[in-house]
Amino acid sequence: MCAERIQSIIQAIILGFIMGLAGAQMFKAAFLVMLAMMILLLIDGFTGFCPGLTILKKIFPPCECEENKG
Q1: Rounded distance, CA 10 to CA 44, Å?
Q2: Longest dimension (CA), the chain
């Protein structure tokens, strides 16, 4: 597994967790978790810096880009 794929899996798990919170009518907690996720994604989009991915790249290797193969 590579860092970028693990990041996508973690994001999917967090979204599922948020859906579970909303389903359990814990709307305040779901809102706060979603807000935090949105802020991190906006920081990544505008600056190119993703704190979670930076940590994951220290543990797992980055994914190989298709352009770099061959």
Answers
A1: 15
A2: 51
What is the gyration radius of the CA atoms in the chain, in angstroms? 15
Q: Which two tokens stand for residue 12?
A: 């999917």
d(CA 57, CA 33): 23
What string of pLDDT tens digits covers the 70 residues of the chain?
888 999 999 999 999 999 999 999 999 999 999 999 999 999 999 999 888 888 898 998 888 865 555 4
Q: Phi-psi region for residue 48, left (φ > 0), alpha (ψ -120 to 50) or beta? A: left
Q: Which residue has the tokens 């991915």?
A: 53
